Amino acid sequence: MKIISSEFIKGVVKADKILEDGIPQIAFIGRSNVGKSSVINSLTGQNKLARTSSFPGCTQEINLFLINRTLYLVDLPGYGFVKAPREVRDQLEKLICWYLFDSKYKQKMVVLIIDAKTGPTNDDLEILNSLKEHKKNIIIVANKIDKINKSVRNHQLKKISDLVNVQKFVPYSAEKKIGVGKLIGELLGK
Ligand code: GTP
Ligand code: MG
């Protein structure tokens, strides 16, 4: 399937009727600055759909993007933003956990984005565990593979894949548009 239309609908920071409108939601989560918003842009082919920044902490709301008028891609704030003031960090992490684990909203899938060069951090593995415990339908995206030297890329990807132990695993580069077709296939069906 192809993405033929994408539009920003709304950013929310608490319970909102829009999250109950029956349109399936696919959540994008991961560490601050790992490229969640960039991955959404690369999927839709629109560079400026979701706001991105080289500074961590760019996305601070739960942003809903409507795809093909039938599906929301949900861009979340990142966790582990070490330089943010404690209160901001706590508040963002609370928002993420509430949406994923404590609210009544269900996600069709949760895309956990990991930095392919760094590999999964403790924060990544912790949230992955919670996702598994909550029986979420998980896809791992190893983003920024363009930053790994080609000679060690496969080795590094195998290491990450073994660590996360999730069947759906997509090596990706939002910047170089690598893995876009595969990820769209996983999200929307072939
Ligand atoms: P927060 O909203 O702050 O949590 O960040 P985010 O996860 O949404 O990251 P964002 O998409 O804003 O990207 C962060 C930085 O990483 C930007 O400078 C992007 O250009 C860069 N980036 C994203 N994807 C890639 C990639 O595949 N390769 C490289 N080299 N850089 C990337
Ligand atoms: Mg973002």
> Structural class given helices, strands, pairing?
alpha/beta
Total individual domains: 1
Provide the CATH topology: Rossmann fold
Shape: globular
SSE succession: EEHEEHEHEHEH
What's the architecture, going by CATH? 3-Layer(aba) Sandwich
CATH superfamily: P-loop containing nucleotide triphosphate hydrolases
Return Rg in Å: 15 Å
Topology (SSEs and partners):
Layout: E1 6-12, E2 25-30, H1 36-44, E3 62-67, E4 71-75, H2 86-102, E5 109-115, H3 122-133, E6 138-143, H4 150-164, E7 169-171, H5 180-188
Parallel strand pairs: 2-4, 2-5, 5-6, 6-7
Antiparallel strand pairs: 1-3, 3-4
Overview in brief:
By secondary structure, the protein is α/β, with parallel strands linked by helices.
How would you describe this structure to a colleague?
By secondary structure, the chain is an alpha/beta fold. It has a single domain, classed as P-loop containing nucleotide triphosphate hydrolases (Rossmann fold, 3-Layer(aba) Sandwich), CATH 3.40.50. The protein is built from 5 helices and 7 strands; from the N terminus they run ββαββαβαβαβα. The protein has a 7-stranded mixed beta sheet with strand order 1-3-4-2-5-6-7, sandwiched between helices. Strand 3 and strand 4 form a beta hairpin. The mean pLDDT is 95. Magnesium ion (MG) binds next to helix 1. Guanosine-5'-triphosphate binds next to helix 1.
Defining traits:
binds magnesium ion, alpha/beta, 7-stranded mixed sheet, binds guanosine-5'-triphosphate, 7 strands, Rossmann fold
